[in-house]
């Protein structure tokens, strides 16, 4: 999480507000309008309810105090403005204190469809709506507490749990359509369509399997894990996750379902 970045986060004023340029607000408007049309029928109901609750602006980048007001009332969470990339330690510390890190820059037009760094559209549009959901909020809090206490080696395995749930999780109740709750998918038009297509592999959520599944951040995911409903995150939170991490360490990783980075097309 701490590598070089070409993006520079904005500094907020004393009231927590940021003066974004007209160009930046236009980028938000374009991103929002393009992706919000993909949400009905594809995003899970809890996300859509959160999107309605946040009532974020279509025409400009939302200010974090506006988001905080809704989150605090709903689940006791708030946002935390951060630089483009932060350390694992800082990331876990924020979640453990019910603060969701938000990088205060927006992607360039050149990286409109995909960027490896989380920008404010990814964080606010992709993740914040579900932070109004109690199960999602509790799981995120628990995850931060676990990560804060974990060793450097254990955190590598915990990162996979976050990746295949919070970032790239899918949900499907019995006899219901497959839907999305992962913010990495919800903030990406391409992956929104791809994740629900017949191209990737999808498996029922299994904690040990998730902890042993490698991933790459710069490609469409070859595999997704599916939970039955958003409340299942509470059940995961009650599992003995760290004992499963130890077991995953002993068993080792699954064979990757993707090419090494330097060979990937």
TrEMBL record:
Keyword match Hydrolase: no
Highest rank taxon of the organism: Bacteria
Protein's name in the database: Phenylalanine-4-hydroxylase
Catalysed transformations (reactions): (6R)-L-erythro-5,6,7,8-tetrahydrobiopterin + L-phenylalanine + O2 = (4aS,6R)-4a-hydroxy-L-erythro-5,6,7,8-tetrahydrobiopterin + L-tyrosine
Cofactors named for this entry: Fe(2+)
InterPro entries xrefs: ArAA_hydroxylase, ArAA_hydroxylase_Fe/CU_BS, ArAA_hydroxylase_sf, Aro-AA_hydroxylase_C_sf, Aromatic-AA_hydroxylase_C, Phe-4-hydroxylase_mono
Family per record: Belongs to the biopterin-dependent aromatic amino acid hydroxylase family.
EC number, as in UniProt: 1.14.16.1
Tagged with keyword Iron: yes
CDD domains membership: pro_PheOH (cd03348)
Pathway(s) this gene product operates in, as recorded in its UniProt entry: Amino-acid degradation; L-phenylalanine degradation; acetoacetate and fumarate from L-phenylalanine: step 1/6
Residue span, Biopterin-dependent aromatic amino acid hydroxylase family profile domain: 1-265
NCBIfam families according to UniProt: Phe4hydrox_mono (TIGR01267), PRK11913.1-2 (NF008877)
Swiss-Prot/TrEMBL keywords: Iron, Metal-binding, Monooxygenase, Oxidoreductase, Phenylalanine catabolism
Source organism: Shewanella saliphila
């Amino acid at each position: 999480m701490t590598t070089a970045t070409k993006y520079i986060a904005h500094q907020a004023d004393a009231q927590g507000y940021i003066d974004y340029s007209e160009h930046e607000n236009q980028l938000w408007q374009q991103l929002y309008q393009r992706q919000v049309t993909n949400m009905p029928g594809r995003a899970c109901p809890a996300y859509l309810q959160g999107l309605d609750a946040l009532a974020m602006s279509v025409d400009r980048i939302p200010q974090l105090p506006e988001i905080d007001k809704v989150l605090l009332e709903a689940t006791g969470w708030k946002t935390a403005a951060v630089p483009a990339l932060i350390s694992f330690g800082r990331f876990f510390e924020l979640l453990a204190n019910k603060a969701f890190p938000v990088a205060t820059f927006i992607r360039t037009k050149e990286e409109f469809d995909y960027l490896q760094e989380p920008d404010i559209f990814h964080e606010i549009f992709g993740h914040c709506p579900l932070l109004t959901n109690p199960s999602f909020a509790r799981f995120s809090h628990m995850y931060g507490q676990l990560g804060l206490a974990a060793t450097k080696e254990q955190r590598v395995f915990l990162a996979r749990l976050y990746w295949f749930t919070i970032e790239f999780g899918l949900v499907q109740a019995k006899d219901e359509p497959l839907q999305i709750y992962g913010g990495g998918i919800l903030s990406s038009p391409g992956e929104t369509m791809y994740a629900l297509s017949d191209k990737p592999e999808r498996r029922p959520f299994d904690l040990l399997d998730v902890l042993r599944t490698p991933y790459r951040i710069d490609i469409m995911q070859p595999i997704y894990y599916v939970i039955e409903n958003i409340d299942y995150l509470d059940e995961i939170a009650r599992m003995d996750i760290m004992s499963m991490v130890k077991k995953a360490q002993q068993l080792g990783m699954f064979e990757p379902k993707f090419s090494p980075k330097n060979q990937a097309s």
